[in-house]
Specification:
Layout lengths: L5 H16 L4 H16 L3 E9 L2 E8 L10 E3 L3 H9 L3 E3 L21 E9 L2 E10 L7 H19 L16 E4 L1 E4 L2 E8 L14 H23 L6 H14 L2 H12 L4 H17 L4 H22 L13 E5 L4 H7 L5 E4 L7 H9 L3 E3 L4 H4 L5 E5 L4 E4 L3 H22 L6 E2 L5 E8 L7 H4 L5 E5 L2 H4 L7 H15 L4 E4 L27 H6 L1 H15 L4 E8 L2 H20 L8 E7 L2 H4 L3 H6 L2 E5 H9 L6 H4 L7 H17 L2 E5 L6 H9 L4 E4 L1 H11 L4 H13 L6 H10 L11
Parallel strand pairs: 9-10, 10-11, 11-12, 16-17, 16-23, 17-18, 18-19, 19-20, 20-21, 21-22, 22-23
Antiparallel strand pairs: 1-2, 1-6, 2-3, 4-5, 5-6, 7-14, 8-12, 9-13, 13-14, 15-16
Helix pairs in contact: 1-2, 1-4, 5-6, 5-7, 5-9, 6-9, 7-8, 8-9, 10-11, 13-26, 16-18, 18-19, 25-26, 25-27
């Protein structure tokens, strides 16, 4: 094959653009393209393989192989040389394909007579779309410039595929087919709506350029604007050291000569400035996704953000595209901060994130707003378009994008059943959660925002068992002032209208790092410098918050709860700070609470074994179920591999809960359970059977839990658990579910749909 030049590459792209501009159906276009590439590169074969689904590649067009193999030949991701290119995102270049490791012979294609093989990925910003292959009878390695030329062509094909140039005649159109994403539950609940992209993708409509010099001028000018914008951000006086470190990484990329040089080289080969940016972004993304180093992977996001900024400069497509938010928006994003999510507020029907975690700031806000959320929905931002129909099943961690009618009908039936159940639960609002054998369980709700408080009356909650004060710190760019907090806490108490509110002091650290707080480089932050440990080491913030709470009470009863207490001495110190501030406020002539309750959250097994003095000293204890469960089972709740591995109805865990109940009974200390499991009816029933007489949960869970408790005899549930324990069962769940199923159903199902 004669040596190729950059002008040959540009000539090929121009011919390719002309083919794409010619009116034709998708299959006809693909056939013309394979013929054109084979002719231009002087190869006997050119083939295009596209993904039929996430794991399957299909031969969609070919010049040189048997035409009857088109749409018949398929292979799995990683299978054969084509599958290897698709899996790794790296070219495969060999002079002797049959002897190459992983080669798979497909007799229906007639490719056995072709020795040399060059395959490059068709990919766009981390989204793998297919593989472009050329083959020749002559045994030879393809030259570097030939690989680059084919890579550039593949980039153009990816852009045109994104614009739907190949749809039809057996080739599926992008962003048109139903897609299901399996993620994880960030917040329970279901929602039906339309997609609203937090950051709409930049659409490149001109991947091929005629004048490389003009395009190089454009890219240099845009990079110059980008560098100035990053430098301006770095010059801001409000930045702390860690924010500057992130922007320094941005500046390093922005000023990288290699980054600009590689984009200019792709422009010389015929790409437009925008397409060159996306090609470099795709290549870097694929390279960094292969590395195991967490720091390098994090730099991938820096490069993504920087490339997107550059694309917006080049295209003029800012975040505000002029699109109108639909009436029932479901937010779709790679990730989102708590302040940004709060800006959307309750207008959102649901939230779907590619990343996130169950303990992330965004998940905390979603729970506070009672918005269904699914996290870890990989590739959803690449597939979704503004306005697409979307179903969010936060209970199962599933998202249906552009669902088929049968799926939509089934989903609506589920929503209707839930709505009907909520009507039944509403009739119980003013009734106590009293079991059929006369045991009453106090029902409280969790909150963290003023927007939660209207649910206090509607849900039938007797009070707020947990008010998360850290949300007001997380959504600000600087530390809130004492006066601001006092005003907020005053409004919370006013809205509660005399019902008790347990204010948990600042619970930061671990997964909740304040924007203006230096992150701690800890190998295991969940067990590190967090919650009361921060408060006792930095007493100024703790004292300021206590002062705000005392002033907000204005003589009314005040309930304060300290998080993550692990030993008696920590509680003594925290309690001492509170009493000292009471004395100080009184000496200043300010009104102090007529009644003060000081409690602790039991979130570590160690506190259950504290001296009896602890149980006598504290006014109440709230079991922090989420943390206690992760420490009891040594299962990180941020780790999806182990988070759901252990059952809350494990008999060892239930026995441990029972021990805590018994210790509190000795000192007559009020005890409740707070966490996700408190809002699950079967778990709540088991906890009550173990002796718990207080539960705190999200408002929507109070109805289902109360309904179940009022239908059963607690003594019978306890007997079922004892049977499981005597039989040596690992979990009480199977026997409890069997027992519940055997109970009369005349008044409706025992469990929510």
């Amino acid at each position: 094959m004669p040596e190729r030049s950059e002008s040959d590459s540009r000539k090929l792209l121009r011919r390719l653009r002309d083919v794409l501009a010619t009116p034709a159906q998708g299959q006809e276009r693909l056939d013309r393209i394979t013929h054109l590439i084979a002719d231009s590169m002087k190869t006997e074969v050119c083939s295009i393989y596209l993904f039929r689904d996430a794991e399957t590649l299909e031969l969609c067009a070919t010049e040189g192989l048997r035409p009857e193999a088109v749409h018949q030949t398929r292979m799995k991701l990683g299978e054969g040389l084509v599958g290897r290119v698709a899996r790794t995102g790296q070219p495969v270049n060999t002079a002797d394909a049959p002897s190459e490791k992983g080669f798979r012979f497909m007799p229906e294609t007639g490719e056995e007579i072709y020795s040399s093989f060059l395959g490059v990925p068709i990919q766009r910003v981390g989204e793998k779309l297919g593989v472009l292959v050329v083959q020749s009878k002559t045994a030879r390695q393809y030259a570097e410039d030939e690989i680059e030329a084919l890579d550039v062509v593949a980039m153009v094909l990816a852009e045109m595929n994104e614009l739907g140039a190949f749809a039809g005649d057996g080739v599926q159109a992008l962003h048109k087919q139903p897609v299901m994403f399996r993620g994880s539950t960030g917040q329970e609940g279901t929602a039906e709506g339309r997609v609203w992209l937090h950051e709409p993708r930049v659409v490149v409509t001109n991947p091929v350029a005629d004048d490389p010099l003009t395009e190089i001028d454009r890219i240099r000018e845009a990079v110059g604007v980008l560098r100035v914008s990053v430098d301006d951000l770095l010059a801001a006086e409000s930045l702390d050291k860690d924010q500057k470190a992130v922007l320094e990484a941005y500046r390093m990329f922005a000023h990288s000569r290699g980054w600009l040089r590689r984009m200019e080289e792709d422009i010389q080969r015929g790409l437009s400035a925008e397409a060159a940016v996306e090609k470099e972004q795709s290549t870097a993304r694929n390279r960094l996704e292969q590395v195991e180093d967490a720091y390098l992977r994090e730099r991938l996001h820096d490069l993504d953000d920087l490339s997107n900024r550059l694309l917006r400069i080049l295209t003029g497509q800012g975040k505000d595209t002029g699109a109108q938010m639909p009436d029932n928006p479901v937010l779709v994003a790679r990730n989102i901060g708590p302040a940004e999510l709060l800006d959307y507020g309750r207008k959102l029907k649901g939230v779907v994130l590619e990343e996130g975690s169950v303990g992330s700031h965004a998940a905390i806000v979603a729970r506070a707003l009672a918005i269904p959320m699914v996290i870890h929905a990989r590739k959803v931002t690449s597939e979704a378009l503004n306005g697409d129909a979307i179903l969010v099943d936060g209970d199962q961690g599933i998202v249906h994008l552009r669902p088929e009618d049968t799926v939509s009908r089934s989903f609506r039936d589920k929503i209707a059943m839930q709505a009907e159940a909520q009507k039944r639960y509403a009739s119980l609002r003013d009734l106590p959660a009293t079991t059929r054998d006369g045991v009453t369980v106090a029902m409280h709700m969790n909150a963290g925002l003023m927007a939660d408080l209207p649910s206090l009356v509607g849900s039938g909650a007797e009070g707020v068992g947990l008010f998360r004060t850290e949300l007001q710190f997380l959504i600000r760019n600087k530390m809130p002032q004492r006066g601001e907090l006092a005003q907020l806490y005053t409004r919370v108490m006013d809205a509660a209208k005399g019902r008790p509110v347990a204010f948990r002091t600042l619970d930061i650290g671990s997964d909740k790092v304040l924007p203006y707080m230096k992150p701690q480089d800890e190998p295991n932050p969940a067990m590190g410098w967090r919650a009361i440990r921060v408060g006792l080491d930095k007493p100024g913030v703790l004292r300021m918050q206590l002062q705000a709470l005392i002033r907000a009470s204005n003589g009314r009863p005040l309930t304060v709860m300290f998080p993550f207490i692990t030993e008696l001495e920590e509680f003594r110190q925290a309690r001492s700070h509170t009493l000292r501030e009471i004395h100080r406020e009184r000496s200043l002539g300010h009104p102090v609470p007529e009644k003060l309750e000081i409690g602790a959250m039991l979130e570590t097994p160690s506190l259950a074994f504290a001296p009896q003095e602890f149980f006598e000293l504290t006014d109440f204890i709230s079991i922090g179920g989420n943390d206690l469960k992760q420490f009891f089972f040594a299962a990180d709740r941020e780790n999806e591999r182990v988070r759901k591995r252990y059952d809350s109805l494990n008999l060892s865990f239930l026995s441990f809960i029972e021990q805590i109940v018994q210790r509190c009974a000795v000192s007559n200390t009020r005890l409740s359970f707070c966490g996700e499991d408190a809002g699950r009816p079967v778990e709540a029933l088991a906890f009550a059977a173990m002796g718990l007489r207080g539960l705190s949960m999200r408002p929507a869970s109070i109805g289902p839990v109360k309904a179940l408790l009022r239908r059963v005899k607690l003594a019978e549930a306890r007997a079922v658990i004892e049977e499981a324990r005597a039989a040596g069962d690992m979990s009480a769940r199977p026997r409890l579910m069997e027992w519940l199923a055997s109970l009369p159903q005349s008044k409706g199902p025992l469990l929510p749909p």
